[in-house]
Amino acid sequence: MDKLETRRLAPFKAKASQYLEDKKKSLGLLNKALLKATTHRGALGETWDKLQLLFGVFRDWINGNYKEMPTRSLLMIILGIVYFVSPLDAIFDYIPFAGLVDDAAVAGFIISQVSEDLEQYKLWKKQVTSEKESDNNDKISL
Predict the structure, then answer these.
(1) What 3-state DSSP class applies to 114?
(2) Terminus-to-terminus CA distance in the chain, angstroms?
(3) CB 78 within 8 A of CB 19
(4) Domain spans of the chain?
(5) 12-42 pLDDT, tens per residue?
């Protein structure tokens, strides 16, 4: 499966590299991906949660909040998002069920490739969220 997925994603690699170099352009990509995901939320099923994790990492990187993601992993995440919003992929999205299965397969592949880094991100996110909640509780107590 790795070779098949790698071949399928190869055409999107150069485009992903461009987004890695331009955070403003990356924000546009994220917005397109969020719109597509929201539009197809019901049909995405479990893939929705996977995409939200990838979008979260990407958003926190764009905003400069999360800097610990290795470049290789970030590139893989961007590559998956580029594939998700790609017009070539959209052809398959018009075939009921088939297009979203394809998107789910790619999201699963990307997550499997960067799983350790995603676990680190989830720990970081949990800590940041906990600290914000603690700060909010302190403000309420005053």
Answers:
(1) coil
(2) 56
(3) yes
(4) 2-141
(5) 888 899 999 999 999 999 999 999 899 888 8
